[in-house]
Amino acid sequence: MVVCSCNRLTHKDVEAAVADGATRPREIYAARNCKAQCGNCVKGVVCLLREARLKHMKKAEVPAHMVPVAADVALSA
Questions:
Q1: BFD-like [2Fe-2S]-binding domain spans which residues (predicted)?
Q2: Which among 15, 19, 54, 72 is most buried, taking Cβ atoms within 10 Å?
């Protein structure tokens, strides 16, 4: 999804920047060598940044081999 049409910034760009350590909107733009121009995208970038950071943090917390499979959860319930 395109988040910023001025810079052709997509949600994938935001996710990639977060994976590379971005924690602020300006770091998202800097990862693409651009900056907010008209400003209409800033709220969307902030929202996607929060979502991507949360997703990234959750992945870092629980190793994939530790996440229960649906069948395992049903058996233990």
A1: 2-50
A2: 15
